[in-house]
């Protein structure tokens, strides 16, 4: 078996088979492991340059497989994800590969196997900086018991390369945050505190002026992180943690209306034909 094919057999790998015809005789499968086994079996019979295969797609697939495996071996394995409160790190490529580390996180991966069908991938390509993607929750979602379940939030960004004066985006890389741990970090990061030791912690009320402290004043001050689509990502309110991933108007309709009225968000109509129409 050739080295690239050994990479394909590694755990943590997700290969796109939904909309890419790598080879005419390749048996497609919705099961990722079965698809990889079928692919390896075919590559042992034919060469990547075979006329029955799309050479461009196939070479990109094998190239990306090798590169992402090196990412695991040389970078990710040396990092203690718990230090940063991370559940996983991942890379999704133009060639159709999604690599997730560690292996347990790969087993729990719920995103589309085809990168171009995954919303985090498309949004990362279309936007500068970092994109946040909480797990989707519909209006009827009642939340999980955080003591027995871990909720992850994807944070991703596009890899940009400049070649010959042109900017290429061959991949998207990112991490999966531990919601409960990062909700605590968020309280500190979102606060506007200066010289706290001298000033002490002061509660905010209409008759006094104080610094914005999302941690100490969590009963008086609502601090939230909402993504570009209007979905709740993080909050300093514990009762919001069970609603992460919901459209924010389902969490706090008045605040969402205020954001809309102040042009932070624009209304865009959309329809879910299996449920009820909604939109902003």
Automatic annotation (TrEMBL):
Residues 18-275 form the Voltage-dependent calcium channel alpha-2/delta subunit conserved region domain. InterPro entries: Ca_channel_alpha-2/delta, VDCC_a2/dsu. It comes from the Eukaryota. GO terms for molecular function: voltage-gated calcium channel activity. It holds the Pfam family VGCC_alpha2. One of its GO terms (cellular component) is voltage-gated calcium channel complex. The lineage of its organism: Eukaryota, Metazoa, Chordata, Craniata, Vertebrata. This is Voltage-dependent calcium channel subunit alpha-2 delta-2.
């Amino acid at each position: 078996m050739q080295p690239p094919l050994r990479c394909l057999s590694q755990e943590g790998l997700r290969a796109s088979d939904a909309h890419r015809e790598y080879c005419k005789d390749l048996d497609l499968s919705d099961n990722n492991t079965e698809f990889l086994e079928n692919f390896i079996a075919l590559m042992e019979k034919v060469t990547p340059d075979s006329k029955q295969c799309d050479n461009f797609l196939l070479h990109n697939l094998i190239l990306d497989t090798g590169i992402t495996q090196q990412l695991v071996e040389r970078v990710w394995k040396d990092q203690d994800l718990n230090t940063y409160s991370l559940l996983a790190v991942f890379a999704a490529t133009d060639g159709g590969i999604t690599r997730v580390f560690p292996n347990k996180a790969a087993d729990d991966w719920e995103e589309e196997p085809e990168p171009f069908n995954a919303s985090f991938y498309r949004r990362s390509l279309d936007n500068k900086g970092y994109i946040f993607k909480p797990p989707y929750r519909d209006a009827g979602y009642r939340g999980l018991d955080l003591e027995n379940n871990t909720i992850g939030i994807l944070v991703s960004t596009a890899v940009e390369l400049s070649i010959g004066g042109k900017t290429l985006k061959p991949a998207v890389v990112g991490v999966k945050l531990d919601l409960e741990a990062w909700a605590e970090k968020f309280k500190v990061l979102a606060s506007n505190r200066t010289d706290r030791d001298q000033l002490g912690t002061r509660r905010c009320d209409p008759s006094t002026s104080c610094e914005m402290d999302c941690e100490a004043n969590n009963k008086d001050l609502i601090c939230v992180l909402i993504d570009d689509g209007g979905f709740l990502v993080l909050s300093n309110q514990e009762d919001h943690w069970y609603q992460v991933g919901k459209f924010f108007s389902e969490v706090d309709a008045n605040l969402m209306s205020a954001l809309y009225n102040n042009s932070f968000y624009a209304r865009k109509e959309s329809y879910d034909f299996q449920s009820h129409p909604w939109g902003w």
